[in-house]
Amino acid sequence: MYRHEGEDVFVIDSHVHFWDASEENITHDGGEQFIQCFYDYHTGFTPEDRQWTLEEYRKYSPERMVRDVFGKGYVDMAIFQPTYLSDFYADGFNTVERNAELAEEYPERFVLNGRFDPRDGEAGLRELERQKEEYDIDGVKLYTAEWNGDSKGWRLDSEECFEYLEKCRELGITNIHPHKGPTIRPLNRDAFDVSDVDDAATSFPELNFVVEHVGLPRLDDFCWIAAQEPNVYGGLAVAAPFAAVRPRKFGEILGELLFWLGEDRILFGSDYAIWEPEWLIEAVMEFELAPDQRDEYGVEFDLDAKRKIMGENAADLYDIDLDEKKQELRDDSVSAEFGLGDGEAAAD
Fold it and tell me: Of the candidates 111, 118, 109, which has an alpha carbon nearest to the alpha carbon of residue 136?
């Protein structure tokens, strides 16, 4: 748990992965391009003394993930967001099954999300039902730019996707996390466009659409959509590193989000293992809007707002009772292993 100004802040990292980009798992040139692009983001933003080697980055152990995220990373709970990329990786890049192994070992720490691809037709609907039945998922991660045979992307507002969203509503899978962020080689930029969020959110008001990466670099488009769709949220993964390396830019991003969405519809995410949460959480929690930005946007990024963004908003979406969870985590296996609890690993 992170300690800020003498206060504990419960952190839910809403965007983590447990991936395998080892050379033996790559079956297509796109798989190598994809992990190389991820690594470019890693080295471009990460402080030099915290950078991984490419070999470390390709495939990391479950022990390292638990240590990086919970042991030294201030995170209390984390939400898995799978990305299959089955055309590029023999066993998938970051699958529900791979994530489930860790979630089952640390059920008090991880929230497991599923996924779907509407191009999978009836078989995909059955698979979505299986994920709900086997893992009781409350959310799905959607990757609209993923390649599938001759197709290089799909849309949230398509008839096929609406059939899957209807299935989510029927099954009680209420949190929809579409990736709408920067282009990743070799995927197509246009397939990450945010315009398809609008009709999907309007058509399914019972579902929550957590737009990952807040549409960057299409922040304005995202904010105008989110302003009129109360069930649209913004995930800060990819935006968060700007707090450390380009604070003025982060102030612009955060100011727009607070102005249009408000502090109740923004979720922190590290995008682990693109970046480790430790330095990201430090940077975001210590960040303050510049005086002229506070004046322009008419907002404050105070402790109450930080509490909501760092954990309370995700807890609301996933029905996590934070008071109960704090008690549960004090004596769990992770706290015992890393000497956590009652602020021992917290930072001021």
Answer: 111
